[in-house]
Write a structure and sequence with these properties.
This protein is α+β, with helices and mostly antiparallel strands. It is 39% helix and 21% strand. The strands form two sheets. It has a five-stranded antiparallel beta sheet, with helices on one face.
Length: 150
């Protein structure tokens, strides 16, 4: 009388096939996650820059420093900076990672986990740029939505 079921050899073959597939598929999944984070960092950089620019257009008497520090109340940013990025000498740096909302034209969401967002303002308080990068990929960063180095 023959019983239904799988033999030990058949089960081991299936387990080894699944293991081989995982060896090939997991690195691809990790790479696609990194690419997704890079795209989100780039989009965030452009969104924050556009939001600050919108506020400056709404009230031309304001400077970027007044908008970021006084109206949006962003916290100061601290190093480490990406290796290819240098803040404005004597300027101001603010952390825009938490997100902000002032009005519908001046808002952005919180940065995804592992993404750093910095609003950099020059010493005079007149010029600004938004820098984003993904931690661990600090050799590439985005300024105002554009890739600076890879």
């Amino acid at each position: 009388m023959k019983r239904g079921g799988f033999t030990l050899i058949e089960i081991l073959i299936v387990i080894s096939l699944v293991a081989v597939l995982m060896v090939f598929l997991l690195p691809r999944a990790r790479r696609s996650n990194a690419v997704s984070l890079e795209a989100q960092a780039q989009a965030l950089s452009g969104t924050v820059n556009q939001a600050i620019t919108n506020r400056l257009l709404q009230d031309p008497t304001k400077t970027p420093l007044e908008v970021v520090r006084d109206e949006l109340r962003l916290p100061p940013a601290s190093a480490p900076w990406p290796s290819l990025y240098t803040p404005y000498p004597g300027g101001y740096s603010f952390d825009c990672s938490p997100g902000a909302f002032l009005n519908p034209a001046v808002e952005w969401p919180a940065a995804p986990p592992g993404t750093v967002c910095i609003v950099d303002i020059d010493k005079s308080g007149e010029k600004h740029r938004v820098v984003t990068y993904v931690k661990g990929h600090a050799k590439s960063h985005y300024v105002n939505g554009s890739l600076v180095a890879k």
